[in-house]
Amino acid sequence: MSEPGAGLRLLRPVDPDRDHVRGGPPAPNAVTLLIYGDYLCPYCRRIRLVLARLLEALGDRMAYVYRQFPNERAHPGADFAARAAEAAALQGRFWPMHDALFNREPPLTHDHVLEAAREIGLDMDRFARDVADPAVAARVEEDLDDGRRTGVTGTPTIFIDGQRYDGAWDFYSMLEALELPVGARVRRTARAFASLPASAGLVLMAAAAAALVLANTPLAPLYRRIVEAQFGLGLIQAPLSLSVGDWISEGLLTIFFLLVGLEIRREMTAGAFTDRRAAALPILCAIGGVLAPAAVYLAINRGATASGWSAPTSTGIAFALGVLAVLGDRVPMGLKVFVAALAVVDDILSVLTLAIFYPQNFTPIWLAAALAIVALMFALNRSRVYAGWPYLVATLALWLSLHAAGVSAALAGVVLAAFIPTRPAPAAGLLLAQAATALAALEHAEAEAKRAGAGAIIQEPIWDWAARNLSAASARLTSPAERVERAAAPWSAFVVLPLFAFSATGFALSVNLGSPDAVRVLIGVVLGLVIGKPLGVALAAFAAVKSKIALLPEDVTLRAFLGGAALCGVSDPVSLLMADEAFPHASLAAVAKIGVLVGSVIAAGLGALILITNPPAVTPDAGPAPA
Hints:
The structure is a single chain. This protein is mainly alpha-helical. It folds into three domains: about 20-195, Glutaredoxin (3-Layer(aba) Sandwich), CATH 3.40.30; about 200-360 and about 480-610, Na+/H+ antiporter like fold; about 430-475. The protein is about 65% helix and about 5% strand. It contains 24 helices and seven strands. Strand 6 (about 230) and strand 7 (about 240-245) form a beta hairpin. The chain is globular and about 90 Å long.
């Protein structure tokens, strides 16, 4: 699954000794507003008026930092203007030059820049040398490279206390974000945490740890009453009356499987699975990473305990990518892409495992109803029905049908993901014209109202017309599938999976390992994750490469690949679900879950140890900024 929060954090923190900070080093409690800007960008010129008001309103409570991000292709002369500002900084005159460049109306030619330098009193001979100095050009390029790595694609891009600000650019919206009322403070704190590479894994670990603590203390009866409490629509025996744990595993987990389905769909249409040779390696390695641990488990377990073979087969992408992110430049980018793609295929195999091997009280007539609903969703998609409610109604009906059929109803999320409609990319020029027309009309109406001495125009018809056009243009930038994914991803990572981990991980650690069956289950699951998973991934990769079906990523060494293969043994909550499905009796299910936890910890440590010894990856030069 995609890592939540990617691209939201400032990768290089503000450094008062290097960065340009208005008024000097920020006060201890000052909020920092950093902008990647372009002196010829018309939007940077507009927003500087808002920044001036913010500085006036907040004083030393706000530190304004400026970094260069000239887009020479879109704004010829922007690079020279940026170098001119940095050359002025060598004479201690960055901010006067910064203001002089923004105060001059375009076009901003070389002569205009030189004139601005003379007006602020620079030593022109030294200025001419510094502008041509490769070190000054390198300073501008450093800001550009930092911006690109951070995810900056246009100007102005704003960061407040290291977190990207995507809110409105008007004075009051930005003032609220800077002054940090309680609501804004909570949002920013949550966003900062979500942007951490390992945040989803940390929340999962915290939820699982809390469940283990509760289940192994005097609070265990209370925990069990909460998880096993029955509620629903109708009588206790009605189809919609489930325990809290079942509502989470079948109901809320639908959101997780919806995200899984959307990830699979994206990889198949525009990701790692679009090219046959590129897709072959993670697909074959994922298959090997399921067959090998199952074989290791079955080599140890026969008879009554053989049904637990699926427990060590699932890879936890949140945990694995979290470890890779923490290791930083020790992990080549190609390995991260490979592990993420493998996890997507692994999710597909987990879905198939649940659907095929663990149906309960199977009722074919309800499965036929589910197939009819799937056909209806296909028809909605083919008819280009973009409204959300028909798909929601169909998904609810599908969920009920799968539940009644004895199949995990959470799989309805995968089906929904397959049929949520997408749209072709829109023509950006037309959307820009629509938005610009609406804003220009508002600006004109506001100016007319001021000349006439009238009040705000918010109640005027033009306000509603402009708002609807701006909303339509904004909504058209993303397809329904993309909007669903953006809305569901944080809920899945920080609510659904932690709740599932909390409900599924609360088992007594004081299980009886005196029986041979329990010992075999524990050993089979641990060895399946620690040995079977990396062995299956490595052998599949060896076979694929030797047969020339696939190639290893160019930047991935053998050592790095083996470290990534070991990390694939880090499991996720789906393994806990499989343990419950495989062993109806709680005692062996608890043993299998302990094996999942122990095996995952060992696999994470082994993979991290291998990757720590890997030489740091060389970061390639960033390409030019987009227009």
